[in-house]
Amino acid sequence: MKVILIVDDDVTIGNMLEEALNDEGYKALRAYSGTEALMVLEKEKPDLILLDLMLPGLSGEELLPKLSGIPVIVVSAKTDIDNKVKLLYEGASDYITKPFVISELMARIAVQLRLSSVKENASAAEEKVISKNGVSLDMELLTASINESEIALTRTEAAILAILMQNPGRPLSRSTILDRISESTPDCTERSLKQHISNIRKKLQAADGIDHIEAIYGIGFKYI
User: Residue 134: which region, alpha, beta or left (left: phi > 0; alpha: psi -120 to 50)?
Assistant: First the structure.
C-alpha cells in the first residue's frame, strides 16, 4: 500500500483528502505544520507528499528543500505563475491550485507514483552492490562483505539489510521495512522481522565486532 503524507493545517481540506486517498487504496498520514511534517518523516518515509504552502511556523516553501528523494505535489491557493515555476525548479514534482477537482488530483498522484516507481526500479537495477560504513552488500550473490570476510545471507536478510543500508542513520519503522520488502519477500511478517534482524546483526558483528543495526524503542531499526 502506497503511503501519502498530507501536510496542511486546514482540517477540513485534510479530512477530505484523507477520505479520498483511502477510497483510492492509499494510506494517509497527516501533519499540520512544517515542523510536524519533519517529525513524521523521522519515523516514516511516505511515497508522496501533498504540501500546502501557507503553514504555521515552517512554511511550505521552507520545508520543500528538506524533502529530497520524495515526490511532492504542492496543493496551494497561491496562483501566481512565477511562484509555481520557482517551486517546480526548487524540487516540487507538480503544483495544483485550490480549489481543485479531486479526480484531477488523484490522477496527478497516480502519475507521480508511477514515475517514482520507474525511477526506483531503474535505480535498483543499477545498484546491485550497496556499500555503507564498512559493509558491502551484493544483492545478486546474497552476500555481505566486511574486511574481505564474506557473509552469507538469506534472501530475506539481504532485502532487509538493503533497505536499512539505503537509509543510513534514518530510523525505519517495522511497517515501513515490511512494506518495502513485501514484493520480494512476502513470507516475512512482523513477528519474524525481529528474528531476521537479530540474525543479520550477529552475522555482521561476528566479522568486525561492530553492531551495525540499532533498535529504536517504539519505532523500529536504524543502520549505523
Answer: left
What is the domain range of residue 136?
A: 127-223
Check which CATH number belongs to the domain holding 64 and give it: 3.40.50.2300
Q: What is the pLDDT of residue 117?
A: 78
Strand segments, DSSP code E, in 77-115 are: 94-97
CA dist., res. 94 & res. 48, Å (int): 11
Q: Provide the pLDDT for residue 180.
A: 85
Cis link prior to 65 (omega < 30° from 0)? no
Over range 169-196, report the average pLDDT.
87
Angle CA 41–218–134, to nearest 5: 70
Q: State yes or no: pLDDT of 124 exceeds 90.
A: no
- Residue whose C-alpha is closest to residue 86's, from 169, 186, 76: 76
* Structure-block grid coordinates of residue 41: 518523516
Average pLDDT for residues 138-147, to the nearest whole number?
91
pTM (2 d.p.): 0.57
Give yes or no: residues 94 and 139 share one domain.
Answer: no
**Of 221, 222, 212, 213, nearest in space to 147 by CA:** 212
Measured CA to CA, the distance from residue 68 to residue 65 in angstroms comes to 7
Per-residue pLDDT reduced to its tens digit, 86-120: 999 889 999 999 999 999 999 999 999 998 877 66
Written as nine digits, the cell of 2 is: 502506497
The last residue of one of the domains, among 92, 124, 156, is: 124
Same domain, 23 and 119: yes
